[in-house]
Specification:
The protein is mainly alpha-helical. The chain is built from 39 helices and 3 strands. The C terminus is likely disordered.
């Protein structure tokens, strides 16, 4: 048009061209158009000015839009509204709200824009407050207003406000439109009221992709994956176009192992229609395979993605974390072009969940050095690492920092603090933190009960358990594990039997292997070996290493040679893979008697043992204690023939804010001589009050107790 001299440009032509440029987001073309506007002296034309501001904002050039805005003597409402939106993108909510408050006049678009900005940035309370002010100033809300406010209610999980708005909407608009209907469905599902969401969905005269996706997502969140897939098929039959967000939601419903075949079929369909290249769909595929522990297929999908975002990389870290491949997870973490706090937390969780606690703490220090702002997940995970390492001094420093930043009141952080204090033997501090939690959840109760159980205070565990029931908080299988373990450590046989029988009778919880293991240990400690054997014989499943290990340990304590041979034979008959399932609970039971011999006030931090050695080590100790050298040699020969090697045991102790590491027969510590003198003195004191200090033969280290601490 410009190249042809027959046509003369007018302002209307420029406004049309600017709208097209804004839709395409071409900033270079936008600058050329603006230059031509000034060349033809259309710069003072109000429609041109409004179009130029809108064009620059949609091309993410807010500063240029601001320069035009400031040159306008009396900007129109359209210009004000555009600048509010633009400032929210460039400067954030504060600057946008300042612009809103400076407006000489407002219309419904002004209110809707500001309410939407608050809602999109998860400022739900501010969004609701502005909505109330809008009503006071006699501005009637429309569908866009209600959709934004319902999103705010959803972010706050405020069902009261949501139902109030629903009633207002029904009074004002007898027939719900699809935009508001989708917001109501999403609000009800995320607030836990799936029945109301279904009613709203069924009341809509028409459905679009948003309403279908909201209902499918809500049904899947309730664990009803099969129903979610049925809804997806109904959506396809209704001829509603599938978008990338619907497909990503359905792939999320296929993350369970039993639906993985459906997920693979859907993956094939996505490849066929060419939607597998979409970033949301690709991320959903990676997440689906990751949750199904198929890291190979997750990696294949990831490598084929043409565009990857932070979520894509984070999903791969999670995929390798779930299969225990810390090295591969770290490899992807290091390759990431950019990271956010979710990525850091994902790698931190990978370390902690796979027992790499020291590396997790080092990563936390790296986060601080790089200026990454932590969130509550960071502190909950980091404090858990301190709990597993039992580093008390470092733990309280991190707790203090979490409280300083305002995360101390978070229930998940507080639960981690309770666990950390418990594992460090500081039960008074643990109970103080527990009491300070305003809204205690089941995890809070379980953390405190587990702490008292680990510290051998069974009656206290029962007391807390009964308090929990009185607060109408129903227990789970973890709660009963703590109760039964506490009863075992305190010799509360009658109480243990009562709570074991109440699991199924009162709460419908079927006893699992860990509960039977605790009961075997409880009966065995009390000398009721035949009763423990009868319990094992009547198990509804094959006994595992933990159960046979508890029984064998009890037989050894009570020197019942007949049952020792019976238990040992069954223990060694188990497959090698089964022996890898030895729980920490059993290891704690076996080593607790030796820990009690330590009279110093050091924190025994962690015993590193290979669980597959457990049965062989225990049996060699039994033969050694009884002086059966032939049996001892036979088991050692069996270990050699199977290629099983015993790694040196290792222990940590924390003294004066320093961690000291010891291995079996270690003499490298600079204070080795003083340590042995102290231990010899401790042994004499123990023997002086009539308590033997345990096996004294040369094979005592077969328990994997470090030589420096075995006494």
């Amino acid at each position: 048009m410009f190249r042809c001299c027959k046509y003369v440009s007018d302002p209307f032509s420029f406004t049309c061209a600017m709208k097209a440029c804004a839709s395409l987001g071409f900033i270079n073309l936008a600058r050329q158009l603006h230059g031509l506007v000034e060349k033809f002296d259309f710069g003072s034309n109000m429609p041109i000015q409004s179009s130029a501001i809108d064009m620059y904002i949609k091309c993410d050039e807010v500063i240029s839009a601001g320069k035009i805005f400031l040159r306008i003597p009396e900007p129109s409402l359209f210009c004000w509204n555009s600048m509010i939106y633009g400032y929210s993108k460039l400067y954030g909510i504060g600057k946008a709200f300042d612009m809103f408050t400076q407006m000489p006049d407002r219309d419904s678009v002004s209110w809707n824009t500001m309410i939407s900005i608050f809602s999109q940035h998860n400022f739900g309370i501010e969004s609701l407050g502005l909505f109330v002010e809008m009503w006071k100033q006699d501005f009637k809300p429309n569908s866009i207003t209600y959709a934004s406010i319902l999103r705010a209610c959803t972010s706050l999980y405020d069902l009261g406000w949501g139902t109030h708005l629903h009633a207002r909407i029904v009074r004002a608009e007898p027939n719900l439109d699809v935009l508001v209907g989708g917001g109501l469905i999403d609000m009800y599902t995320k607030c836990g009221h799936l029945r109301f969401a279904r009613k709203v969905f069924n009341s809509l005269k028409e459905h679009n992709a948003v309403s279908w996706t909201s209902l499918i997502s809500g049904v899947a969140q309730f664990g009803l994956e099969e129903e979610a897939l049925v809804l997806f098929n109904q959506m396809r039959e209704s001829l509603v176009a599938l978008d990338e967000f619907t497909l990503a939601t359905v792939l999320g419903a296929c993350s369970a192992q039993k639906h993985v075949l459906v997920g693979e079929q859907l993956h094939g369909y996505l490849i066929k229609v060419g939607m597998d290249s979409s970033v949301p769909v690709g991320n959903a595929l990676v997440a689906m395979y990751a949750k199904c522990e198929n890291s190979h297929e997750a990696n294949r999908v990831f490598e084929l993605m043409p565009i990857k975002d932070v979520i894509s990389w984070t999903s791969m870290i999670t995929a390798y974390s779930q299969v225990g491949s810390v090295e591969k997870a770290l490899e992807y973490f290091d390759k990431m072009p950019e990271r956010n706090i979710i990525t850091w937390n994902s790698m931190l969780t990978t370390y902690v969940q796979n027992g790499c606690w020291e590396e997790g703490l080092k990563l936390y220090n790296l986060m601080q050095r790089e200026g990454v702002d932590p969130d509550w997940v960071t502190y909950a995970t980091t404090i858990s690492a301190c709990a597993d390492l039992a580093v008390y001094k470092l733990g309280i420093q991190i707790v203090a920092l979490a409280e300083k930043l305002g995360f101390g009141s978070n229930a998940s952080v507080a639960n981690s603090v309770v666990t950390m204090y418990s594992k460090c033997g500081r039960m008074e501090e643990a109970e103080k933190v527990f009491d300070s939690i305003d809204e205690k959840n089941l995890i809070s109760w379980n953390a405190l009960m587990s702490g008292y159980a680990q510290n051998g205070q069974g009656r206290k565990v029962i007391e807390i358990f009964e308090d929990m029931l009185s607060m109408d908080c129903n227990p789970d299988h973890i709660s009963y594990t703590s109760v039964l373990s506490g009863c075992s450590h305190s010799g509360l046989v009658t109480e243990g039997k009562h709570y074991f029988s109440s699991m199924n009778k009162d709460f419908g919880i079927c006893p699992a292997s860990e509960h039977y293991s605790c009961m075997v240990d409880l009966l065995g400690r009390a000398g009721l070996l035949e009763e423990a054997k009868n319990l094992i014989d009547g198990l509804p499943f094959k006994p595992n290493v933990a159960i046979w290990g508890a029984f064998l340990s009890a037989c050894r304590i009570h020197r019942n040679s007949k049952l020792v041979e019976f238990a040992a034979r069954n223990l060694l008959d188990l497959e090698h893979t089964h022996s890898l399932c030895l729980s920490r609970c059993v290891m704690f039971i076996l080593f607790s008697v030796y820990i009690l011999y330590c009279s110093c006030k050091l924190n025994i931090m962690k015993k590193q043992v290979s669980s597959n050695l457990y049965s062989y080590v225990l049996l060699t100790n039994i033969y050694s204690d009884s002086g059966n050298s032939e049996g001892f040699a036979g088991v050692r020969n069996l270990m050699r023939n199977k290629g099983i090697q015993k790694n040196p045991g290792c222990s940590w102790v924390e003294v004066d804010n320093r961690v000291h590491v010891f291995t079996v027969d270690d003499t490298n510590h600079p204070q080795t001589k003083d340590i042995y003198i102290m231990l010899e003195d401790t042994n004499r004191k123990i023997e002086g009050i009539g308590h033997p200090h345990g096996p004294t033969n040369s094979n005592c280290s077969e328990f994997l107790i470090p030589k420096t601490l075995e006494d």
